[in-house]
Each structure stands twice: as structure tokens, then as C-alpha cells.
Amino acid sequence: MSAENDPAQRVAIGISFGNSYSSIGYTTGEGRAEVIANEDGDRQIPSILSYVEGEELHGGQAKTQFVRNAKNTVAYFRDFLGQEFKSIDATPCHESAHPLEHESTIAFKVRDSAEDKENEVTVSDVTTRHLKRLRNSAAYYLGKEVNAAVVTVPTNFSNAQKEALNKAAKEAGIEVLQFINEPVAAVLAYDARPEAKLADKIVVVADLGGTRSDVAVVASRGGIYSILATLHDYEVTGLKLDQVLIDYFAKEFLKKHKSAGDPREDARGLAKLKLECEAVKKALSIGTSANFSVESLVGGIDYTATINRTRYDLLGNKLFSAFSRLVLHAVEKAQLDPLDITEVILAGGNAHTPKIASTIQNAFPETTTVLAPSTSTTAINPSELSVRGASIQASLIQEFELEDITQSSHPVVTVTPHLSHAVGVLCISGDETNGVFHAIVDAETPLPVRRTAIISTPREGGDVLIKLAEGLRHIKVTKPEAKPKKEKDEDDSDDSDDDESDEEEELREKTWKVNNVLSEAAIKGVKKGGKVEVQINIGVDLGVNAIYREVGGKGGVRGIIAGGKAANGSA
Amino acid sequence: MASASVQINLPLPVLPAGWTAEKDFKPIGSLSHATDRNIEPVGPHFLAHARRKRHKRTFSEDDRIQAQANVKKIEDDDEGEISEPEDPLMLQREAKDWKGQDHYAVLGITRYRWRATEDQIKRAHRRKVLKHHPDKKAAKGGTEDDQFFKCIQKATEVLLDPVKRRQFDSVDEAAEVEPPTKSETKKGNFYKLWGKVFEAEGRFSRQQPVPKLGNEKSSKEEVENFYNFWYSFDSWRTFEYLDEDVPDDNENRDQKRHVERKNQNARRKKKTEDTARLRKLVDDALALDERIKLFRQQENAHKNKRRLEKEAEQKRLAEEAAKAKEEEARLQAEKEAAEKASKADSKKAKEAAKNAAKKNKRVIRGAVKDANYFHGAGDAPASQIDSALNDVDVIIAKLDNEEIAALTAKLSGAKGPDAIKQVYQEEVKQLIGAGKLKEGELKSLS
Ligand SMILES: Nc1ncnc2c1ncn2[C@@H]1O[C@H](COP(=O)(O)OP(=O)(O)OP(=O)(O)O)[C@@H](O)[C@H]1O
Ligand SMILES: [Mg+2]
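^ inputs. structure came back:
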């Protein structure tokens, strides 16, 4: 075993490696995740390398090279790892070094040495160089060599992609302890906070990054996470939002300087616009207006302007609502209703945009908490969620042998039967004689599971009946009183009064239907005001072991409901 | 796995009387199937899970394979959809002619057209971007030609914008389904042929879902609903996609306004034509729909039956009425006859009584003579005769026919003047008793 592979010698960090930005983090001795700033003071380090006369620039410094040295600047390459040329989307690289087909992989042609010669640098090599820079920054900050990391990846990163990344990391002197899914890292970042309470919930992680947006619906049950559905979109992106501002300022510029050329048609003009517009967009996340200022935008003309947030909100509206549709679509894909969603964690840099958070909040019922800087004071910086999650995970597993970690992440350990319906008891509410279902174990809870419920009894105590049942979540929709449909006249006022808000909103509520009664049990002679404790244990074979007793009372009832399913089986 | 406690504040139900179970527990059902999912190997609670699951166990290769066999897939395959072949002519299109392009063909989703979901359009777009990105073509030594790529972008822009998509879908000829002719319908299956037509037309409906044409088993109500729906069809179809381009420059405002007005009129005209077209289409379908005929026949049969029943009932009623009338007439006649008969009888009786009375009176008066005018012995003087006859007449006048008959009978039984006189005197006494005569009024008999 080499020195780096020895857990005792390990210094592990968390790495979030995005197409646009990367971050590095670690967990302090007190168990707090910290994001590390690089030598430039950046915590969001652009995933960019640029070569100037043999010198390698990285991060923010490389990014400025888009203007003068675009050809030798490599950006937006992460997703190319482990892919064939035919399956990559070259769009984001249009204004910098273009990806090329290189043997069975992908490369960029750049002048990366002092020699006047272009070299084809493979995406793996670019990644290695980038990770090396990240590793060095972390080592510099921590004051010790870094040799291992937990790295976040999108949920649809293929095994080939992970393999390529793993190799590139190794080349950079980083042993990847584990790849973890970005949305799960975000959930972990929130759950690892000391004030966080362990609760069963459904969380949607909606990540609006630079070149893609990703949505994941995650069931969180007793601190165990299961992804129920995901969606990915490469058209609703931060770059598109930048483009909206680019078009806006270009048009404003053209209005003012009629004889000047369109800055978008000039490579440098466009590069300057891009950089400045991204900065403006970020400024609008905090301020209600922002300044745009570029020296020599095109034809030597300096251009300054201001924009207020309302304008930007309007310009970006189509993309904001497309993002919100995407999020709702993911919920639908998980066969859930917005009412089922406890939290939406907004992640990715663009989650800083207030209008995105409010659009999402409007798409969900009030019962759903939207965690974003503008909607929640306790929100974690959305740009740091991945790296924080990775850092926490790194601290949790860094003392394990790599083999041990690999074994534990194998499907033989991770594949688990999940309850298809909630299991609970029937209680009495109002004058209902049938009883209302109250969940004790939620649907999508991995097995085995144990849950306990403390249940009230009738005012006078006495003998009570405890019916265990499966509950089906049902969305009750109450339509508003139907308004008389207005007659459409045959005249020509056709497009004048298209229906906008003349439809009243229907009332939607989450209710339960009893699917299947599992068992009946009696607890006799409950004291006045007494309570009953029900403990449910459900095994992987779907067998249920239930224990009932009066709280503080003696004895109790015990029952077994046969599972009839072999362990590990499923329908 | 971690345990948590749920607090439930609604009370449990009271145990129903008579509920019993061995050891107070009764199993009834069992849990529905479970779904195999991957749990994320992340976080402190997962570590505990892994420890428990791996505890003192070694997994066989078979276990390892089995574990993944049924696991629920979360990520979609990108290759999930068949790609349509690209027409070489289409690949040579110029982006500036985007209005004339078939956006669905450009994205390779002509098998979906208006049915394509946002998701399908996005995936199709991505597939095309991966294939046709000009930078990739250039990198492979191709030309810098980005015309078709721009066509792809335009197609996506139109199809992902709900307003623009409707404008295009409104005039997407390839999505149209021509209604079959009368003879085609007769030869083929009405429901199949017209079902497709209505499905295609239904894409323009503001009201969704659109009722289905159904089949020969559809109920009358369903069929009526269907045609009612189509006769009051609320269509979002618009025709601005066919607008003539409005000049962009600000120079010629009049020209601009002119084109705009022309466009408005053209749109309205097309819309009117479309409404008429649809109405005719529905008329045609209705005319060919066997169910309508059947329902009409059934209706007619039903009506006929009702009419016949009604007629029969009327006939019966008429007959009954006639009978009743006849009976009434008969009864009337009988009654009249009876009346007539009884009238005749009473007349005879009266006559007879009259005659009898006349006879009796004669007897009574005759008896006065027999009683020698109540004069005793010797010839009675004229005054006595007058008085006696007068008095007897007074008696007769006071008596009805029966009394007269009774008196006559008594008189016939009386022999000799004294006896006769006595009979008269008794009669007088009776009449006085009845208050019909006064004492001493009849001098001859006092
Ligand atoms: N404060 C901010 N306000 C608004 N947008 C921001 C802010 N900070 C970063 N962004 C935007 O977020 C995007 C980057 O997101 P993120 O840091 O999540 O990158 P990433 O994961 O590398 O993205 P991807 O892999 O999708 O390219 C960029 O479009 C950037 O402009
Ligand atoms: Mg990201």
C-alpha cells in the first residue's frame, strides 16, 4: 500500500467540480465544513485554464483571458470526461478553445508551452491540471499535502465519466475516496448543521448552474437518502441568463452608438460583454440595480450603463419559468405532488437570484420551504452546497480503507426495498366513524425500519382499538364554484380578452385514503387521559412486528403480520 | 435504521363491543410490494446501515448480481428514442427561410408533432445539437457551415415557446388528417377513419380532454355529448403564422400599417373559413354515423309504439264511451217507458177511483133515499129531502175516495132507514172528531 493510500496518512478534502466553477472544502476539527478560498481569494474558482507564453493561468485569472487569449483558454470541459466526441455538447466552448476528437477521446488544441506550437491536450489532462491547481490551493491553505478527496458529480455522470475523472484525479495526486451525487451532497450539507433535526421529508434539489440545470427529488428517511427522480436540462442555464443580459446591453449600446458595430459580432467585444454581464447578474442578486461598464467595448468605444433588478427579472422571466416548470416536472416524474414536497433546496450559482427563488416558491404550496438566500435567512450559500457536502462526507470516511468504502457503496449494500405506501393507524376525527389514517412510516422508507408513535385515547380512556393500515396519499381538489361560461360572441374581438386570471384557483389538500387494513389490536383499560405507544418494525421481507402498550402501563400486546416476501425480492 | 417517534393527537377508537382476538391481536392483511431502490452511500446514517448490512457477511457474486437486478432506474437513457432519418434536402436549408421549415422534421420528431411533450422536444434538440454543432463539424475538418444548426435552434425556439408553437401547430399541414369521403367511409370502418380525424382536430380544443368518437357500443348520451362538443367547439387555432412579413424599418409607417391590416383581415377570414370547414366536417360525420340512424330508428320505434298504444287506448276509451252512452240511452228509454206506463196506470186508477167514487157517491146519495131522507115514517117533505141531500153532499165533499168507498161499504151492509141513518150519524161524528165538521152543522143528521 502506497503512502497516500494509507488511511492514517490521508488528508482528504471535498471537491465540487463543475463545468463552470469548482470549490474545495474541508471539515474542521469541530466538524464544521469550511470552503477554502484560493490564492486569488476565490471560493468559486472558475474551472478554466489558460496558457500565456507557457505560463498556466487558472481560475479567475484564466477567465479574463477569454478576451485576449480565447484560443488558448480551456473552459467548460468537465462533462466531456469519459465521453466520445459524438456525444458531447460543444456549445459552451464556442468562445474559447473548441473540443476536438482525439483518438477515442476529446482534446483541446492550445499553445501550452513556451514553444510556438499547438498541442492537443486531452480532456483528462486538462482535468488533471485543473485538479492539481485545486489540490495545491487546498494544501497551501491547510498547510499540508492533500492526497484524497470526495468529489461531487451530477446524478447522470456515467461510470465511464467517473472512471475518467478518477484517473485524472489520481494523476493529480488525489485519491478519490468516493464520488457522491451533487444533490445528495446538498441535502447532507443542510442535514449536517448542528441545529438540523432528523425528520422524514421529501426534498427537491434544484440546481441552476452555468451550463446545465439538474433537479433531483430525494426521499430523506431517518437520515437515509434515496433519489426518486431526476431531470437534466442543458437549455435552461446560467449562460443563457448571461445571454439575455448580453443581448440587452448590446441593443442598448447600439441605440446609443448607431454607427458602431454590434459588439456581439466582434470576438473581443462579445467576450467583454460576457464577463461583464455575468458580473452584472451576480450584482443584481444582492443589489436592486447594477452598473455595467466596459472599456473599449467595440470600435474603441467605452460603454457604461445601469440596469435595475426589475428589468432583469423581466428579461429572464422566460428562463425562470422554464426552470420552475422543470422542477415541477421532476416532482411529477417522481409521481408526487408539490404538496408532498417538504423542502426545495435551491443550489447552483444562479440560486442567488431572488426572482428564481420567488418563482419556485410560487410554484409550490406555502407548506413547502424554499431554501435560497432570498427566501430563507438560514439558507446555506447555494454555490457551496456541493463542496460542503463533499467535505462532510470526506471527514466521515477518510479513515476507512478504500476497499471498505467501495464495498459499502456496492449495490449489494445500497439496494434496499422501499415501502410503496405509508403505514399508520386509524384514529377518530370529528364525527367520522370510519376513522382517519395517520401515517407512522412514510412511503419510500427503506427497509428495515422501526418507528414509534404515541397516540391519544378517548377522553375517558377504556378499551381502545388499534387498526394498522396502509394509507394512500390522495390529493383532494376542491374546484371553485363554476362561473357561468361567458358566451363567445361571433364578433372580431378575438384576441383581446384571452383568459388570464379569470380562473379562480382550486383548493388542493393532502389527504389519506385507507388502502389496506393490516391488523387490529386491543389495549384494554387505558387510564383516563392515557396514551398508547405503538412500535412498528418492518423487515426487508415486508413482515411487520408491532408492539402496543399503554404509556406507563404494564404488559402490552404484540403481533406479527407475515411478509410473504423473500428478503431482497420485489415486485 | 434510525428510529423516530411520531405524536398523534387524534384519539384511537373505542373497542367495539364483542371484539375478541387471541392475545388481543388479529392480523388481517399484508403490505403491498416494495420498490427496490439504491440508497445513497452518503452521510452518517448510511454508515450505520452499511455496518449492519455487511456485519459478519460475505456476499457471493450471485448476491452482487441479484442486488442490481430489480433496482429502480432513475436516470433516463439518452438513446431511448429512435432517431428519424434526415432528409438531405432538409440539411441544406437556409436558416432565414425558417418559416417554411417543418420544425418537427428538423428535430426528427415527426412521429409526435403536436403530441410531442416539452421533454421530447428538449431531448430531440439535444440529440441534434450533439450531431450538428458547427464547432464540432469544423473540428472534424468540415465546413464552418452553421445553417442547419441555426435551423435546429429556430425549430427549438418555436416549439418550446407555447405561443409560437400554437401558431405553428395551427398551420402544420403534416398533422392534418383529411376526412374520408362518403364512399370511403362506407367501405371502411367509420370509427377508425373518423376517429383519427377528430383526434387530429381535437388538438385545437381549448377544452381538454376532448371526448372520443367511440364505437358502435357507445351510449346515446356519449354520442350526443360528442356531437354537442363538436358543435360548440372552442378552438385556439390561429393563422398569424401565415402573416405576410411586416416591414421592419420605421421609414414607411403607412406601408407597415397597411400590411398589418391586411394580415388582420387574412387571419380573420381564415379563421371564419376554418370554423365553417369544421362545422361541415362534423355535419358530414354526423350524417354518416350509423349510430345516429340507429338511435333515430330506436327513437321512432319507440315513438311508434307509444303512438299505437295511445291509439289503442283512445279506441278503447271511445268504445267504452260509446257503450256507456248506449247503456245510458237504454236506461233512459226504460225509465221513460216505465214512467209512461206508470202514468197510464195511475190515470186508469184515477179514472177507476173516480168512477168508483161516482158510483159510491151515487150509492151514498141513494142510501139517503133508502133512509127516507132521515124523515122517519111517512113521506118526507121537500125541505127535508133537500136538507138531507145537502148534508150528504157536505159529507161526501169532506171525504176522500177511500173513505167514500168505506162509507159505501158500511152503507151497503146497513139494512133499514135507521141503520143507514146511524151509519151517517157515525160518519158525522167521526168528521166532527176530526174537526172537519162542526156539531149541529148537518141538521138532518143531528
Ligand atoms: N451571486 C450570483 N448570482 C447569480 N448568479 C450567480 C451568482 N454566483 C454564480 N452565479 C452563476 O451561477 C452559475 C455557476 O453555477 P455553479 O457555481 O453551480 O457552477 P457549475 O456547477 O460549475 O455549473 P455547470 O456545471 O452547470 O456549468 C454561473 O452561471 C454564474 O454566473
Ligand atoms: Mg453544478
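The first strand of chain A starts at residue 12 and ends at 17. Residues 245 and 404 of chain A are 49 Å apart (CA to CA).
thumbs up if we can close this ticket
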